Amino acid sequence: AHFLPCKLCWFQRIFMYPQVLILGIAAIKNDFSVRRYIIPLSLIGVSIATYHYLLQMSPIPLPCTDEVANCALKQIAQYGYITIPMMSLTASLLILVFMFLLRRR
To answer: How many CB atoms are closer than 10 A to CB 61?
Structure first.
């Protein structure tokens, strides 16, 4: 969509993208110990996405220190609350829920 990502978006991606590879390998190998790697990555991603979402939704403009893109700018705003950080937050929370529900057969 040619959106310029801010620093917070980059950090969310840093903690989200490796999970694809880690979870893919774990699924192929039936490795249930993957939880100890995925849960910390997801928790950090949830923290960053929550802060970013609150930054965007705050009625009081909070400072943003990014020179490239404004962290508080809502590039997507569907239904009044779905923004890019909310999508990242939702994905990270879903991964966390699935990791906590993961049980050995």
So the answer is: 9
Tokens 């700018």 belong to which residue? Answer: 73
Read off the pLDDT of residues 23-55 as tens digits, 9 standing for 90 and up. 999 999 988 889 999 999 999 999 999 988 888
Distances (CA, A) of 12 to 33, 66, 80, 85: 23, 15, 21, 8
Give CA angle at 92 (34, 46), nearest 5°.
110
What one-character DSSP code corresponds to residue 5?
P
- Structural contact between residues 88 and 10, judged by C-beta atoms closer than 8 angstroms: no
The CA radius of gyration of the chain, in Å to the nearest whole number, is 15
Taking the C-alpha atoms of residue 13 and residue 18, their distance in angstroms, rounded to an integer, is 9
Tokens of 1: 């969509």
Residue with tokens 């829920």: 97
The pTM score is 0.78
Helix-then-strand count for the chain, H and E: 3, 0
Using a 10 angstrom Cβ sphere, with 0-12 exposed, 13-18 middle and 19 or more buried, the burial of residue 52 is: buried
